[in-house]
Each structure stands twice: as structure tokens, then as C-alpha cells.
């Protein structure tokens, strides 16, 4: 059978880059998508030198809806069918609602919500029904817990969670495996590293490394897991979240995140 081809959005950095390397180590051909001038050609070169597979890059701003259509037109014209879609590109923040301008939130919703919906629709439409396909949507624990300074971001991730779970139900009998990744904090960039460093105890223990998250996510996706929550503490937190009353959760979250909420 010919090798699988995976689209990874937001592949130039952070978790997306780790996804690209994890898939490359499994000899899966790659279509890497990110903003122009974000280092995709360099990443593709590195992968081509170190792994035997095909790498295609597509540089585009996914907050522009037409970019999603252009990506699939480009794949069609290149004779490529994608078997895996990883909706990873996302814009996070850690700020009081009033501290960001409306344009920021619009962009966040376009990238975290609209792009994954459009890409998923286009991806499903081009599938070869004979071959098992995989969809991995990157959510967040922020979509499960109501956390101050994560108001719009958390809501976009709740959307991703609902969207993914609903598709799982709708497509139960189709030849596709649909997974939701719900990670806690990931040390993907220096500013997050600095922020995560301030956390203590359980809050600190929820933080994971991108390579580990990518490994667990791809492993879980191929096993057909419906939801992948990297890290034992994070799984426990999600369990507690389903049991504890809202006011107790609010007290715990405020006390555990005190060092970063104050900032
Ligand atoms: N980091 C965490 O703590 C954490 C926790 C839970 C969930 N997540 C989720 O995990 C995913 C990846 O997060 P991350 O921390 O790895 O993010 P990141 O380091 O900021 O990387 C995001 C990637 O998306 C690309 N990107 C940004 N805007 C784009 C646009 N308009 N069009 C196309 N590509 C764009 C970025 O390109 P540039 O390099 O050019 O900016 C980068 O490659 C996100 O969905 C995030 O919500 C992250």
C-alpha cells in the first residue's frame, strides 16, 4: 500500500513542528502548512535530509478563509490525497479580556475555529473511502476548565471539543478515525516556558513537553482514541472536573494559578 500523507497546520513551530517530526519518524508523507516566512522550507529540508519521505510545503495565512480552499486546490492539482489532517494551528493568549483589541479576538476565532471547520470539510470531501483516514483536532484543557485570562481562547477550544465529539457521532460508520487532543500547558515557546516556570505543585505538574505530546497524540490517533489527554495529572484533573461542583473548581483554579493570574 502507498504511504499515508498527513497535513499538519501550524507546522513551523511548537507542537506542529513536533507533529511533523513524529509523523516523519513513522515514514508518513507530509504537507506542512504555516504562515509565509515562518521557516517551513528549512524544516522541510531538515526532514528530507533525515527521513525518507515526501514533504510538501504550503505557506498561507489560515485566518484568510480562501487559504483553506487554495490548500486543497493545490493538493488536487499536485495529484495528492491527504489521509490524515492535524488541525493544530492555533493562537493562544493569557490576558485580561480588555487588554487585547477586538481584532486580536477576531483573528483568534478565525484561526482556532473557522479554519479547522473549513479544512475538515474540505479534507472529508477528498477522502478515498477505501482507505482509513484520520482526523486529529487540537483542543486544550482550557476548553474544559473555566480559567481567568483564557476567556476567548478557552471558548474556541470548547468549540473544537464539541465539534470533534459531534463529528465522531455523525461519522461512526465511516472509514475515519476522529480524535480530540486535550493537552494542558505545553512548553512550546520561551514566553510559555517563563510563565510555566512560575507555577507550583499540581499546576506545574500539568505542564508537558511538545515532543511527548506529539508522540502520545499520534500514537492515540492511530489507536482510534476518541480523546487523548497527555499526562497522568491532566487525566486526573479532567476526572475531578466532572465530579466537583463549579464553585469548588473555581476556588481550586484561582489558588493553583495565583502566580500567573496576578501578572
Ligand atoms: N502551548 C500550549 O501550552 C498549548 C496547550 C494546549 C493546547 N495548545 C494548542 O496546541 C496548538 C499549537 O500550539 P503551540 O503552542 O505549538 O503554538 P505556536 O508555538 O504559537 O505555533 C503555532 C503554529 O501555527 C502557526 N500559525 C500561527 N498563525 C497562523 C496563521 N494565521 N496561519 C497559519 N499558521 C499560523 C505558527 O506559525 P508562526 O511560527 O509563523 O507563528 C506556528 O507554526 C494550538 O492549537 C494551541 O491552542 C497549546
UniProtKB/TrEMBL annotation:
SUPFAM superfamilies: NAD(P)-binding Rossmann-fold domains
Pfam families: adh_short
Coiled coil: none
GO CC, alphabetical: membrane
MF GO annotations: oxidoreductase activity
Domain of life, source organism: Bacteria
UniProt entry keywords in alphabetical sequence: Oxidoreductase
InterPro entries: NAD(P)-bd_dom_sf (IPR036291), Sc_DH/Rdtase_CS (IPR020904), SDR_fam (IPR002347)
PANTHER family: DEHYDROGENASE/REDUCTASE SDR FAMILY MEMBER 7B, DEHYDROGENASE_REDUCTASE SDR FAMILY MEMBER 7B
Similarity comment text for this entry: Belongs to the short-chain dehydrogenases/reductases (SDR) family.
Protein name listed in UniProt: Short-chain dehydrogenase
Taxonomic classification: Bacteria, Pseudomonadati, Bacteroidota, Sphingobacteriia, Sphingobacteriales
